Amino acid sequence: RSMATSARKSLTIGLIPADGIGKEVIPAARTAIEAVGSDLPPTRFVDLIAGFETFTRTGVALPEETVESLQNECDCALFGSVSSPSKKVVGYSSPIVALRKKLDLYANIRPVLSVSPNPGESSAVDMIVVRENTECLYIKQEQQTIGEHGKEARATRLITERASSRIGRMAYELAKARPRKHLTIIHKSNVLSVTDGLFRESVRALHEKYPEVTVAEQLVDSAVYRLFREPQIYDVMVAPNLYGDILSDAAAALVGSLGVVPSVNAGDNFVMGEPVHGSAPDIFGQNIANPIASIRSAALMLRHLGYMKGADRIDLAVDSVVRDGQLLTPDLGGKAKTSEVVEAIVKKI
Amino acid sequence: RSMATSARKSLTIGLIPADGIGKEVIPAARTAIEAVGSDLPPTRFVDLIAGFETFTRTGVALPEETVESLQNECDCALFGSVSSPSKKVVGYSSPIVALRKKLDLYANIRPVLSVSPNPGESSAVDMIVVRENTECLYIKQEQQTIGEHGKEARATRLITERASSRIGRMAYELAKARPRKHLTIIHKSNVLSVTDGLFRESVRALHEKYPEVTVAEQLVDSAVYRLFREPQIYDVMVAPNLYGDILSDAAAALVGSLGVVPSVNAGDNFVMGEPVHGSAPDIFGQNIANPIASIRSAALMLRHLGYMKGADRIDLAVDSVVRDGQLLTPDLGGKAKTSEVVEAIVKKI
Ligand SMILES: CC(C)[C@H](C(=O)O)[C@@H](O)C(=O)O
Ligand SMILES: CC(C)[C@H](C(=O)O)[C@@H](O)C(=O)O
């Protein structure tokens, strides 16, 4: 599913490194995009701020100007990673969750692929986690009250037919375009018969429009178990927000490192690339963060916008550096610096 | 944490095989308990019904008589596994979730241990998932309404200070009794700052009473990732209900099979053993289900009641059969029948 590229004479990309290693890997992704050159229209980057550091400095985690620039000026964006406060901080709320919501980026698409298959050989792990990105517990409707036995907190989990159908449609479209054309619906309707029941039914109801896709379903607990035991049974998985969050991290563990797993947050009118990893404060500033997840997120974003050639050039360059095995960051067992990996990738682009 | 055994002149154990392979593995657990003989007081078993099959036959998944027998007649119980309907079935609601609630079995304790360490050698995976068992989304407060864009469903997630503190206390007690004395608190307070914030704070607040325990915390997505990458970092994990459900299945994948992972549902006055696996309708009736999870659940239940000697005899017998490697069910790569494994274990008890 790609947006029309024809009308676009230039490309404006918002860059939101946010916290920690986001500040190392987003510049890396920019460098990779710049290397693509003439396979993209003239490209302009806009530096934008958000994150916990922005919050501690300005009192706001997601400044209005950042949102406005994305809405009015940018065609797409790349987001880095946010640090979570280690204690509860009054007034702080995750900017990435807010951005997904404000820009209605309802689909979080996370392809997970084994790191180093030989060229042409099919990969042991090759799946896409399609995660609903706007509702579930992520609507953040929470209250605390005082009950008979102390504090009581409640959160609302929202599942709508509309959001379930549109994420379902996205998942069927992605499945249809893949060789195996297989979709697994993830839910926990043995406990949440109403909310997860609605998710399941809404996705199931679309099946008649996609007869070429085979459909299975699994309870989320059992899905995580089987993901580790038999990853090859999965092709495309579609899940409500929180299950998708957990499943994509679980799948990342299968391919060796979160440092290589890209994603896009996609809506009907905007797309934002985002590495699946976090801000990793423990390794920040050492020039050893793996830039691959961000660089692949850039490729995925370009692909989503219809720039297949540019995306392919980035992905093939990354594949080749990974297969080479000479320049890998520590998370993949190597000793290379972030900048060395970026340089090698840029050379191959 | 064990309940006083002194006052007990006899032991009455409720057996609720429920659905599918539950009907094969609960009898196996009974046989193992019977083999313990004089290390237990005179023991009586009460056969009780519940489950999806019970529902289709009687219209009720958890009959009143079953609950009454457990409350009035039994000292403890063993529960098998329930099948989930493949479509939404009006009036059906999971009996295991209801039982945990009705008997106030607030702690689901799931030790996960590598299957076959040599005797004396420390195990690669050796952790306990301590799962809150009465609230979170499992309170099943759900409604469906019709909104502007179709159906909308909402569920309430409840986290209380009281439930978080009592599960926290259980987790610290368990951690304190282990060599490593390490506790990891699982939450997602970067999104659910109120509910998971309360869980985290409530468990953290107990730390001053257990200075010998070291405490870490992790976001649930990252915890699942690290569970697969570095399982050795975990000792005891404490989690709200749903995260605990997912984490215990994830941990089970690490030790080769859900077929070996036991649990108890424990309250202050009652304990119910339960294998972590499901009802596995695909293998039911073939005499190939792994009885070890249920047999170990029986041992765990006895241990919780204070019958250490009986519990040890069962566990050592299972260890020895597993280490032997001659009689393993298909989930562990063997060809043995359920009944052969039970026989071998009983011989060693
Ligand atoms: C940082 C956090 C709010 C976020 C999420 O839970 O969505 C992250 O885990 C992710 O997967 O992008
Ligand atoms: C059967 C189901 C309701 C149950 C749960 O989610 O608790 C099961 O997955 C478990 O872990 O015991």
Automatic annotation (TrEMBL), chains A, B:
GO CC terms in record: mitochondrion
Keyword Disulfide bond in annotation: no
Residues in Isopropylmalate dehydrogenase-like domain copies: 12-345
InterPro entries in the record: IsoCit/isopropylmalate_DH_CS (IPR019818), IsoPropMal-DH-like_dom (IPR024084)
Name of this chain's protein: Isopropylmalate dehydrogenase-like domain-containing protein
Any single biological process term in GO: isocitrate metabolic process
Lineage: Eukaryota, Fungi, Dikarya, Basidiomycota, Agaricomycotina
Family note: Belongs to the isocitrate and isopropylmalate dehydrogenases family.
Pfam families xrefs: Iso_dh
Cofactor: Mg(2+)
Sorted UniProt keywords: Magnesium, Metal-binding, NAD, Oxidoreductase
Organism: Tetrapyrgos nigripes
An example Gene Ontology molecular-function term: NAD binding
